[in-house]
């Protein structure tokens, strides 16, 4: 059964018209996603000295993994996962579903590793854990992201886990919760960029307020914000829902 059978002709036209605009928004999202990864890598590697998981002398390099993995993981791979139902239109739906699940799994794995890296940096540098608004919202975001993955897997993928009628009922909740979790990750990243740049502008480095690095960090955060807006806009219309989810 296909949802198109349940739609009037006019509804189908509206869905089609909306999906052209959505494709344009999704294309913008892909460009912003690539830009976000390039910018955060240039910042952490070129300006901040590189990324490592182990270092005896320079613990800051361990921190640098954090922004790279958080942007690459829940935001870029998570955003692409959300868009996969709308942008991989030439491949069968079952393949899009696998892409959605696998991209989210990769995004979650990168996110968990990124959070591990920043805890490791704190512990090895004698800095307290979980003192900031960013860290509290961040723990909520990564936990909810993992919960959303587990719920999505159990409801829509795990064989026979959920009968079609229940899947249909769950889908709008899954989509709304997914957009909210994604938006929370984008908001967390905004707080993170602001916090890190504020640290860098204080002692001992005292980076210039209008210097190249400050502009790069703020611009990277803006690109991440616009990416978030594009991904959410691309999903606002429910017309991608299939009858059998
Ligand atoms: C989805 C995105 C993100 C999540 C879920 C997240 C999560 C976290 C968590 C849980 C901590 C606490 C670590 C601890 O207490 O030991 C933390 C620390 C930190 N994060 Fe992020 N982060 C994200 C993105 C970013 C980004 C893009 C930056 C940009 C530089 C950033 C900068 C920081 C900084 C400076 C700290 C150390 C200070 C603090 O604990 O607030 N984060 N992050
Ligand atoms: C194993 C994990 C997951 C499975 C099996 C799964 C499955 C699905 C399915 C079947 C749809 C319906 C798509 C359609 O017919 O239009 C969907 C949509 C959606 N999912 Fe997931 N999902 C998973 C994880 C996640 C996660 C972790 C998030 C967010 C953090 C998420 C966010 C969304 C969103 C926003 C939509 C709506 C997409 C659209 O309207 O184009 N999903 N998912």
UniProtKB/TrEMBL annotation:
Q: Which residues form the Cytochrome b561 domain?
A: 28-236
Q: Which GO terms describe its molecular function?
A: metal ion binding; oxidoreductase activity
Keywords on this record? Electron transport, Heme, Iron, Membrane, Metal-binding, Oxidoreductase, Transmembrane, Transmembrane helix, Transport
Please name the Gene3D superfamilies in this protein's record: 1.20.120.1770
> Which residue ranges does UniProt annotate as crossing the membrane?
24-48, 68-89, 101-119, 139-158, 170-194, 214-236
Q: Does the keyword Cell membrane apply?
A: no
Stored SMART domains: B561
Cellular localisation: Membrane
Topology with respect to the bilayer: Multi-pass membrane protein
Give the GO cellular component terms, alphabetically.
membrane
Cofactor(s) needed for function: heme b
- Would I find Iron among this entry's keywords? yes
Show the InterPro entries listed in the entry: CYB561/CYBRD1-like, Cyt_b561/ferric_Rdtase_TM
UniProt superkingdom: Eukaryota
Cited function: Two-heme-containing cytochrome. Catalyzes ascorbate-dependent trans-membrane electron transfer by utilizing a concerted H(+)/e(-) transfer mechanism.
Protein name per Swiss-Prot or TrEMBL: Cytochrome b561 domain-containing protein
Q: Which organism is it from?
A: Urochloa decumbens
């Amino acid at each position: 059964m296909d949802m198109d059978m349940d739609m009037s002709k006019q509804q189908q036209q509206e869905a089609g018209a909306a999906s052209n605009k959505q494709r344009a928004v999704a294309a913008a999202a892909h460009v912003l996603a690539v830009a976000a990864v390039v910018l955060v890598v240039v910042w952490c590697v070129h300006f901040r000295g590189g990324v490592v998981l182990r270092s005896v002398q320079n613990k800051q390099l361990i921190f640098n993994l954090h922004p790279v993995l958080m942007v690459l993981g829940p935001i870029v791979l998570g955003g692409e996962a959300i868009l996969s139902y709308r942008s991989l239109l030439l491949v069968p739906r079952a393949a899009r579903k696998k892409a959605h699940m696998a991209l989210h799994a990769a995004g979650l794995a990168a996110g968990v590793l990124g959070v591990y890296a920043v805890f490791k940096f704190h512990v090895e540098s004698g800095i307290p854990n979980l003192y900031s608004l960013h860290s509290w919202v961040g723990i909520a975001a990564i936990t909810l992201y993992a919960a959303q993955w587990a719920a999505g897997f159990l409801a829509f993928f795990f064989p026979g886990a959920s009968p079609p009628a229940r899947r249909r009922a769950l889908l709008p909740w899954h989509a709304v919760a997914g957009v909210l979790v994604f938006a929370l990750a984008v908001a967390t990243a905004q707080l993170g960029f602001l916090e890190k740049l504020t640290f860098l502008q204080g002692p001992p480095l005292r980076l210039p307020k209008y210097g190249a690095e400050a502009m790069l960090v703020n611009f990277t955060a803006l690109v991440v914000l616009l990416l978030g807006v594009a991904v959410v806009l691309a999903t606002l219309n429910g017309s991608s829902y299939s009858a059998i989810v």
